[in-house]
Amino acid sequence: MKEITRAAIAIVVVCIILFGVNKYLNQSSGNASSDTLTIFNWGEYIDPDLISQFEEESGYRVVYETFDSNEAMMTKIEQGGTSYDIAVPSEYAIEKMKENDLLQEIDHSKIPNLSNIDPYFLDLAFDPKNKYSIPYFWGTVGVVFNPSLLDGQTFDSWESLWDPSLEGEVLLVDGAREIIGMGLNSLGYSLNSTDEKELLEATAKLKELTPNVKAIIGDEVTQLMINEEASVAITFSGQAADMMWENEGLDYSVPEEGSNLWFDNMVIPKTAANVEGAHEFINFMLDAEVAAQNADYVGYSIPNTAAIELMDEEVTSDERFYPLEEARENLEVYKNLGLEMLGKYNELFLEFKMSAN
Amino acid sequence: MQTKTTKAFYLIPYYVWIVLFVVAPIALIAYYSFFDLSGNFTLDNYQNFFTSVYLKLTLSSFWYAFLITFFTLLIAYPTAYLLTKTRHKQLWLLLIIIPSWINLLLKTYAFIGIFGLYGPVNAFLNVFGLEETQILFTDFSFVFVSVYIFIPFMILPIFNSLDKLNPSLMDASRDLGASSWTTFSKVILPLTINGVKAGIQAVFIPSLSLFMITRLIAGNKVITLGTAIEQQFLVTQNWGMGSTIAVFLIIFMVIIMIITGQRDKGAYANGKNK
Amino acid sequence: MSDNTIIRFENVTKSYDAETTVLKNINLELERGKFYTLLGPSGCGKTTILRLIAGFMQPTSGSIYFNGKLINNVPANERQVNTVFQDYALFPHLNVFENVAFGLRIKKLGKKVIEQKVIEALKFVNLVGYEKREIAEMSGGQRQRVAIARAIVNDPEIILLDEPLSALDLKLRSEMQYELRELQQRLGKTFIFVTHDQEEALAMSDEIFVLNEGEIEQSGTPMDIYDEPINRYVADFIGESNIVSGTMVADFRVKIGDKEFECVDQGLNPNEKVDIVIRPEDLEITAVDKGKMKVKVDTQLFRGVHYELSTYDDEGNEWLVHSTKKADVGASIGLDFDPEAIHVMRLNETEEEFDKRLESYGEDAYAN
Q1: How far apart are CA A148 and CA C101, in angstroms?
Q2: Which of A113, A227, C229, C324 is most buried, taking the most CB atoms under 10 A from its CB?
Q3: Does residue C212 sit within a domain?
Q4: Cα–Cα distance between A306 and A288 in angstroms, integer?
Q5: Please, what is the end-to-end C-alpha distance for chain B in angstroms?
Q6: Same domain, yes or no, for C330 and C348?
Q7: How far from each other are the two terminal CA atoms of chain A, in whole angstroms?
Q8: Does the keyword ATP-binding apply (chain C) (predicted)?
């Protein structure tokens, strides 16, 4: 009994110490100095040559780190172990970071190249007047498919995924918002729905899809589609472009019921150590030539009108990746639904996954 | 008196280690499990765990962990036994252990190719006129790859206990009229049961919380407690719920360790007392 | 082959590969109810013979008969033979009772019968009251007894004992020698005992097989082997001996160095080179002029019952003497011995030839 009491006291003491240390760590900012620029970006989301070019032009040393989900990125920025100067969150994450007071205002006067950006992508709901973020890439969620493995199905409608002939053929992206959103869209609901009934209905509908589901995976989807291991996959437009680059037999479609339109914007976290450099970098990335080169490399769609003019017409006129404004009407941008709702989405998604076997 | 203080002094690093890396994390997990998303104290997480989703999840985790452990044992025991009989057993053992030095993810990725529709396994089946079958993203592939990854961890303790077994005990058993099977069940197995238990611990417990293989090989059609914890922390950012699942996982682990705990009976002659 | 034969080896050879042959063409016959000892240094093949009888290995060639039936391919668990192992091989996870009951349980005997038999076996080895003990709690001598009880409880026809006393200390060892011999006589079973200790062999056996490099050098009663070793190897292995080279001058006359002595051997070729054995206890210390041989005392050790003297003759041969008399180190003494003390061994004589020659003496003796 004595031992247990002692152990309990030890645990309490350690907890207190750890919380103290935690507080201290949160206050102190990282070790970056003014001649380095720390960038936090998605994997494979920049042409590495451009980083060298920026280093040469600006004289800064660039530290480049990557993340694979908005949530992981936010967690890291919130913890503040490293002071990132640039991060590239998606729109709903920007909303959340604003809420949590993680972002600095951007001084537009230091970014003359902002004029290159298509006004359609500016002053959007998640960041009015682009006070905190500057557009980087944008895209959609849709269906990439291999007509040679199919009997002429097209994916103008989400409904096509439920076709019994696709048994064990459909790859899904491992994301709660994307898949639950798809379920909602297929029923004609908003993919930002917070209505309990709509959500349950969508989950029930998704459960009917399970016979067709081959796997629910991450980036591996690219390789699987290229290798024709599966005939249909739900994925992001940029990833689809990657696949189609490697396997010309693939096609991409955004179903008419609607889908997700997403933006990844550059932001400057509150904890940034090199704010000056961050502005320089944003301006650099908006340069027409730089943006065009980057888009060529990454394969996603850019919001940069000046750059689009420099790019291959065949690419920029492809409505699958640069849909016309009318076509964008059906598309919805993810709203930050709050942690509570996100938890709900995830629990439903988990339920769906468990029914997949 | 002096020896007592010096002894205590030497124990400091041990205690610091235990406190920092064992006690503190567990305490933190337990602590977090009592908070909801907005940081209020709550018991909801525990209540939530007993809803059908998480219970089903727990059940399926145990079921797959059981399958993995069962097949690993089925393969590892005879293999370990044969190993002790080979001439260059240390070399063979090394060959079996070497793959475990390679990163788990690397091996897992390799299986994506191997089990693919156009991978070597299907190519092999083609030779016999069989059509390509979907191997990847099935229960079979998941259990197969997990078993492959865990086999060294099962073989090692079993091999050690078999290798320590005095061969004249087997002779004695035969001599007293026991058949090979009786010798195995009455002598070899009871004397190597500690190795088997250690192997089961080393396989079953991590199997409960496998998570990368579930995505890469099972296509997220198999969900374990580990996947759920990862999701709660990284995606949902519901640290409270994640911690709660982790608390249960820890409880399960402790229970398994108690069940497979080692009662060291007659340790003397388990070894060759020559 | 008599009806009493229980084990017969016919040209049994055992080799592991082309180079290592551990048994070379062994022929032997063992009778029911006797205490046999296989004696030899390690690696001589004695344990191999035991393992062949037990069924732990099969001969490379040749046949092994048990009660007249070929048992080459009968597995160990189907043989009416039980073994007491060198390291006892007691099951560490079972207590004393369960160790002894192991064989009975396999025969699926009733609970009562098992209990009765186990207690009886434990009585035999004086271990009643130890049933519940763990093996780890038993001393070396006690483990030894458990191992014996475990073997005899199955009522086998043969009990094999693989150097069972080697792990015990000297005092316990001689106690156990008596006990084993007595146990064998009480049970009336065939015991086959393997040892490298010649004293043990001489003390316990009805018959000894002396082995060397996979071959039987000589077999016979302890007295036969002690008194009439067939060759230098056996003489050297059995007891302490003075072994010197000599020449057979004529029947009953043998020459050692340049001295001739009277002996009891005959029928050898004139001037045949031979080995000569004189046991140390057969040499008697006398005055220099009275002895048949003159030697110089080099060292002297007090051994309790006797003195052990190391002496040298003029030609440099060492003569070991066991005597109750004392001598002075450095002094010259005379050694006296009877003609019977001289044992002449022909070089490279086989056991068969040796037996024949001995028999011919017997005939002569009767003739005399």
Answers
A1: 74
A2: C229
A3: yes
A4: 5
A5: 40
A6: no
A7: 47
A8: yes
In which domain, by residue range, is B248 found? 52-269
pLDDT value at residue B2: 56
- pLDDT of residue B273 exceeding 60, the answer is no
Burial group, residue A132, by CB count within 10 angstroms (0-12, 13-18, 19+): buried
pTM beyond 0.80: no
CATH superfamily name and code, A37-137+263-320: Periplasmic binding protein-like II (3.40.190.10)
The larger pLDDT score, comparing residue B126 to residue A87, is at A87
- Pairing type for strands C284-286 and C332-336 reads antiparallel
Rg (CA), chain A: 22
pLDDT over 80 (residue B236): no
Contacts of A168 in chain B (CB under 8 A): 134
H runs (alpha helix) in chain B: 2-18, 24-32, 44-49, 52-85, 89-97, 104-114, 120-127, 139-164, 167-175, 180-183, 189-208, 212-216, 225-230, 239-259
Q: Does residue C274 share a domain with residue C137?
A: no
Average pLDDT, chain C: 89
CATH of the domain at B162: 1.10.3720.10
Which among A346, A348, A351 is the top mutation candidate for probing chain B, defined by the most B β-carbons within 10 Å of its own β-carbon? A346
Of C335, C332, C331, nearest to C322 by C-alpha is C335
Helices B139-164 and B89-97, packing angle to 10 deg: 150
Find out whether A167 is annotated in a ligand binding site. no
Chain A: residue whose CA lies nearest to B32: A15
Counting every residue written for chain A, the total comes to 357
Cβ contacts of C316 within 8 Å, gap of 6 or more:
none
Q: Which residue has the higher pLDDT, B150 or C350?
A: B150
Q: Per the CATH hierarchy, to which homologous superfamily does domain A139-261+332-356 belong?
A: Periplasmic binding protein-like II (3.40.190.10)
Convert C192-206 into a string of H (helix), E (strand) and C (coil).
Answer: EEEECCHHHHHHHCC
Q: Is A92 annotated as a binding residue?
A: yes
Find which of B87, B169, B175 to mutate to test the C interface (most C CBs within 10 Å of its CB). Answer: B175
* Residue of chain B nearest C89, judged by CA positions: B169
pLDDT of residue A324: 81
Average pLDDT, integer, range B175-191: 93
Domain of residue C265, CATH code: 2.40.50
Q: List, edge to edge, every strand of the sheet that includes C61-66.
A: C21-31, C5-15, C61-66, C69-70
What distance in Å separates the CA atoms of residue B22 and residue B44, rounded to the nearest whole number? 26
Q: B231 in contact with A at a CB cutoff of 8 Å?
A: yes
Q: Which residues of chain A have pLDDT under 50?
A: 28-32
Backbone angles phi, psi at C320, to 5 degrees: -90, 130
Provide the residue range defining the domain that includes C358: 240-279+339-367
B259: left (phi over 0), alpha (psi -120 to 50) or beta: alpha
pLDDT digits (tens, 9 = 90+) for C279-312: 898 998 988 888 888 899 999 898 888 899 999 9
Residues making up chain C, counted from first to last: 368
Q: How far apart are CA C156 and CA C53, in angstroms?
A: 13
Rounded to 5 degrees, φ, ψ at A291 are: -60, -40
8 Å CB contact of A354 and B60: yes
Mean pLDDT lowest among A28-32, B240-244, C246-250, C354-358: A28-32
Across chain C, the runs of DSSP E, i.e. the strands, are 5-15, 21-31, 35-39, 61-66, 69-70, 81-84, 158-162, 190-195, 207-212, 215-220, 242-250, 253-256, 259-262, 272-278, 284-286, 293-302, 307-313, 318-323, 332-336, 343-346
Nearest residue to B203 via CA among B69, B63, B70, B61: B69
Q: Which amino acid is at B101?
A: W
Number of domains in chain C: 3
Establish how many alpha carbons lie within 13 A of residue B158's alpha carbon, considering only the half-sphere containing its beta carbon.
Answer: 26
Q: Please give the tally of structural domains in chain B.
A: 1
